[in-house]
Write a sequence for this structure.
């Protein structure tokens, strides 16, 4: 009895399997239109795009062309200074160089391009170059023979007014207690004379006109 039941169960399973196989075979042989209704159509194939592993090579731009600039010859200032006339002591006679038009000094230094103006440049910008033909006489008390003569003209041909006034000299005559001791110590006229102008210790007749040369 039990063996009969097993045979019947096996027969039923085999019949079910055969039926399923026959349905699948029949579905594959159906017309295209009927298969599209029964089964969902597969999506169309998508193109496969692969990203490049590295960026394509781009050649660098050519380097800029460098044109060598011709170097200007440097001025030999020592040789230029040696060509200027000399005074009795062998120093440069700037007044004679001016009269011979061997030099043409500027009244002020020009500021660097783009540089902010500092206080000295602002003062120099307001100090317009002007030649002043004015001669002052400085007479020491009780010593008229040692009268000193100061000509503005050669000084204002080289310097602007702000170089001396009012940091070295006051604008009023007789306001500065000028003595030879202070000049030889580097004050007043000694700020330039003895350094870039004639030595006051050896060029006495240049200022004291009444003294023999």
């Amino acid at each position: 009895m039990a063996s009969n039941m097993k045979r019947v169960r096996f027969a039923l399973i085999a019949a079910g399997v055969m039926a399923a196989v026959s349905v699948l075979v029949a579905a594959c042989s159906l017309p295209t239109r009927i298969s599209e209704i029964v089964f969902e159509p597969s999506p169309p194939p998508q193109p496969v795009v692969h990203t490049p592993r590295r960026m394509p090579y781009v050649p660098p731009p050519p380097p800029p062309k460098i044109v060598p600039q011709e170097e200007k010859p440097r001025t030999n200032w020592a040789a230029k200074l040696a060509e200027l006339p000399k005074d009795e002591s062998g120093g440069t006679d700037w007044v004679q160089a001016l009269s011979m038009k061997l030099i043409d000094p500027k009244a002020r230094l020009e500021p660097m391009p783009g540089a902010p103006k500092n206080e000295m440049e602002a003062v120099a910008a307001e100090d317009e170059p002007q030649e002043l033909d004015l001669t002052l006489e400085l007479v020491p008390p009780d010593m008229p023979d040692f009268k000193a003569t100061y000509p503005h003209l050669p000084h204002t041909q080289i310097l602007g007014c702000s170089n001396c006034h009012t940091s070295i000299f006051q604008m009023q005559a007789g306001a500065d207690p000028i003595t030879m001791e202070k000049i030889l110590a580097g004050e007043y006229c000694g700020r330039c004379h003895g350094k870039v102008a004639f030595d006051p210790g050896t060029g006495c007749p240049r200022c004291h006109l009444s003294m023999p040369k």
